[in-house]
Protein: LysR family transcriptional regulator
Amino acid sequence: MDINLELYKVFYFVATTLSFSQASRQLYISQSAVSQAIKTLEKKLGHTLFIRSTKKVILTAEGELLLQHVKPALEMLGEGEALLSDEKLLTGHLRIGASDTICRYFLISYLQKFHQDHPDVRIKITNSTSIGCVELLENRQVDLIVCNSPNSRLTTSFQQKVLCNFHDVFVANPDAFPIGGTALTLEKLLNYPIMMLSPHSTTSEYLNRVFSSRGANLSPEIVLNSNDLLLDLARIGLGIACVPDYMVPDTSLVCVPLEETLPPRQIVLVTQTGLPLSEAARTFIDYL
Structure:
């Protein structure tokens, strides 16, 4: 039976106040509109719901039965509307794609604050390289990604927002590589064992492009998938590691001075153009 919810709403107010005039005031409609709505509902249901007199309005047995079902239904709808209109309440899911480095050194403080403010949101984080994160976003496995830029997989079909700039630096154990304060050219740097991320990373793409533009062939001694492991190996003197500058608070390692500072890169927030985001995702973006 197709009955407009508004008819049940009018019935609810008349049934709970037992007054057509009071119902009209609470609903902000005319008393004649209330009467017409009740007549329409009675006709559709095939039952008289109220006994009307000049002095009072009384529910019929059928009206009493209907009220038992309409009252909890409308009250539950009202509670749902109140929950959704409460700006402090946020539920649902938040799906993020990020590399382990960005997650650990950049995102974790934002995730902590967001979780404290919105504990009912379920957060799922998928680790991948910055290039792999774009694939996650393309396949709609995540709502948003935080990755490095430049990134060969990012196209104009994505919306990007720069969150911060950083520089790649070469760090070494000064006891193993006593370079001192002498600034090196990129060509002379290659005389040392270089350690860096795998060729399937944005860092590798970027560094190879920079060195090639200087006529230098970058051929690392050690290639890994973890910046943290690169730092561990640098600490024990296995080579000179290339890592983002925001990873190097460690006093056991020093930055190798270069004659030229490498061009900056960015950490960017990326979403799919034209696809709506959940309320949880939109709220998390505000934290960034």
About this structure: The chain has ten helices and twelve strands. The radius of gyration is 32 Å. The longest helix spans residues 61-85.
